[in-house]
Amino acid sequence: MSVASKGDAVKVHYTGKLNDGTVFDSSANREPLQFTLGDGNMIKGFDAAVQGMEIGQEKSVTIPSNEAYGEKRDDMMLDIPLTQVPPHIKPEIGMELSLQNQQGQPVPVRVVGVEEEKIILDANHPLAGQDLIFDITLVEIA
What we know:
Largest sheet: 5 strands, antiparallel
Strand content: 35-45%
Order of helices and strands: EEEHEEEEEE
Number of helices: 1
Structural class: mainly beta
Number of strands: 9
Oligomer: single chain
Distance between the termini: 13 Å
Shape: elongated
Helix content: under 10%
């Protein structure tokens, strides 16, 4: 039986959970996730977990944060003066907004603080700093 190797196009079903059991993503009730092993489009730990699997094989892996979305970085916390917030936006903690980087691409941010003269935005990935648990089933190797 063939095993998934770097360069293979694969399809997997998966469920991603946090350490407390909270499911943050799943391919259940939708098409399996398709990607090419080793092309850099998946988080490092997920890609590594699928390599060597056989079709129909199931596994559960814990991926440390440094092989997932990285650690939370202080340089991704942004203080923005309220004078720079468009008047139609009323910032509240937990609100998700979008900024543009220097190349004009959108950067998702979350409001984590609202003070008298500024808001504090977190541009870290929402799963940064967290170890992730994935239940993976290899469906196809193309």
